[in-house]
Amino acid sequence: MTDLPIHRHLAETADERLLLVRQVPQQIFLIGADGDISRRLLAARYPQAVFAEYDPRPDFLQTAAAARKGGLWRKLTGKSIAQTCQAMTAPLPEAQADMLWANLSLITADSLQAVFRNWAHALKTDGLLFFTHFGRDTLAELKGRLNELGISCETPTLIDMHDLGDMLADSGFYDPVTDTAKLELHYRKAATFWQDMDMLGLWQALQTDRPQEAAAAVNRIFAEEGRLNITLETVYGHAVKKLVLPEGENVVRFYPKG
Q1: Which segments of the chain have a pLDDT < 70?
Q2: Taking the CA of residue 135 as centre, how many other CA atoms within 13 Å lie in the half-sphere pointing to its CB?
Q3: Residue 211 lies in a domain
Q4: Number of structural domains, the chain?
Q5: Is the N or the C terminus of the chain less surrounded, counting Cβ atoms within 10 Å?
Q6: In the prediction, which pLDDT does 148 show?
Q7: 184 within some domain
Q8: Is residue 256 included in any domain, yes or no?
Q9: Handedness of CA 105, 109, 113, 119 (dihedral sign)
Q10: Residue ranges of the Methyltransferase type domain (predicted)?
C-alpha cells in the first residue's frame, strides 16, 4: 500500500475548504490513517497542532508511520504521532480534540450513527468535524450487473448525504453540511480493480448473500469484456460539536436593552 490516489484527492479537496475556517485547532484527531496524506496537509496549515491517529486497520497505521519516518517535518519539530489501533466505536478521549478529521474511514464502520456519537464525545464544544465518505450511488453499475445475474447485494453504510446530515444533527452536532461529487474509474485489469476495492474498503462494504459468486462474476466481466467501469459518489461533510448541558439545565442569555 504505497499510493492512495483516491484518499489523496479527497483529502486535498477537503483541505481546500479549511480556507474559510477561522478557528485554529491545537489538538487534531485523525480518524483513519491515509498514508500520512491528511496529516501532512493539516500540519502545513496548522503547524502548532498536536496529532493523534486512530484506525482499526493495523496495516494502514503502519503505512502512515513508515511514511513519516525520517520526514522533514519530524526532523524539524521532533514530534511524533501517537497511534492507536481500535474499532471506530471504541471510546476516544473525551472532549479533547479541537478538530476531528476522518478521510474515508467511515467505510470501516458497521453503525455510522454510533461512530458520529463517539466523535461528538471526543470533540470539545464548538470543535470541528471534517470527514469524507462514499455515497449511495457508489458502485451502482456493478450492483446493477450483479442483480441482473440474480446476485442480490447492497451497501447499507453508503447512504444519501442528507441522511448523513440528519445523523450528525441527531448525534451531537449542529450546522451539518454535506455535498457530493462523482468520480468515474475505468479498469482494464481485474487485479487493479481488486486492489482498489480492498484498499478503499468497498468490496467489504458491499454485502451479498453469495460473495464467492459475486467475485467470480466480476472476474468473468474482465475475462469476457476486458474492462469494468465504476462510479464513486464521494461525500464531503463538516459540522460543529454542540454544547452539551447536564439534564435539566439550559443556556440563559442576557441582551442589553435597545
Answers
A1: 1-2, 70-78, 244-258
A2: 20
A3: yes
A4: 1
A5: C
A6: 93
A7: yes
A8: no
A9: negative
A10: 41-131
